[in-house]
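Action item from last week, closing it out:
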Amino acid sequence: MLTFTIRRLVLAIPTLLFISLAIFLLLELAPGDPMAQVPLTVPPEVKEKMREALGLGEPMHIRYVKWLIQFFWIEPQVFIDNMFNTSFAEGKLRVISWQTRSPVMDIVVQRMPQTIWVVGTAYIVGILIALPIGIYSAYRQYSLFDQAGTFVTMIGFSIPPFFTGPLLIVVFAVQLGWLPSVYDTLHVVTDWDSFKVQFRQMILPVMVLALQTTAQISRYMRASMLDNLNQDYVRTARAKGLSEAVVVLVHVLRNSMIPVVTVIALGMPAVFGGAIITEVIFKVNGIGQLLITALFANDLPMVQTLTFIFAILIVFFNLIADVLYGVLDPRIRYE
C-alpha cells in the first residue's frame, strides 16, 4: 500500500503540470481583456503601463513559468513563514490578483472558512442522511419508505439550486419569517447566543445543498446494496445463523461502500470549491462567489489559481478513494 501511494504521488506531479498548462492556455485563449474595466478617460499609454505592470507584456511561456514558481515555490514558503515566523518569502513576488492587487492565496484563506462552514456542513449532513436512506431502501425494496425515498431523491436530482434556493427564501424567510435570507459573513461565533444566530443563518443554504448530496449518494447506496444483497455470500452468512443485523450492516454494507466511496471522495473537492449558485443566492462570501467575481473581472491569476487548487484536490481525493478500496475490500491488493 505504501509503495502504491508513493507511486501515485509521483505520477500526480506530471498530471498536475499538464493540468496547469491546460488551464493556463485555456484562460489565455479565452476572450476578454483585464483592461476592459479601466475607465475610458485613462490615456492609452497609461493603460499600456498598467498592462506591463500586470506582466501582460511578457511572452506567454515566461508568464507560465513565473506562475509555476510563484505557486509551487514561493507560496509554500509564505505558508512556512506564517506557521513558524520565518522569513523565507520576504520580498519575493507572489501570485497577485489583478482585481484587488493583493496576494491570491491570502484572499482564498480569508474566504475558505465561510465555504467550509456552509458547504462542508451541507456535505456532511447530506452523507449522514443519504447512507441510512439508501441502506434501508435497499433492504425494504419496493416498500412505502423506498418509494417515498425514490420520490424525494428524484426531486433532489430534478430541481436545480437556483430554483430551490429562492423557493426556500420565499417560504421560510419572507412568508414565515423564521430564518434569515442573507448569510452574514461578518458574524463571529463567541458564545451560545452567537452560535444560535450562526446556526439559523446556515439552515437555508445547507438545506439546498444537502438535498442534492442526499439525492445522489442515497441512490448509489441503494443500488450497491441491492447488488450485494443478492450475492451468494449473503445466503451463506444467513445459512450459518448470523443475525440479520450482522449480515446487512457488516458484510453487505462493507462491500456496498466500495463504489459509494468513489462518489463521496470525488464530491469532496466541491466542498472547497464552494457551491457557486448557492453562495450567490444566499450572499455567502465564499470561494464560489470569489470565482464568479474573478471570472467577471477577467482576473486570470485568481481564476487560474482557484481552478488549479480544485484540480489538486480532485487528484488527492482520488488517491484517498483508491487507498480506501484496499481497506474496505481485502481482495484488493496493491502490489
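Closing note: The chain has two domains: 35-97, 110-328.
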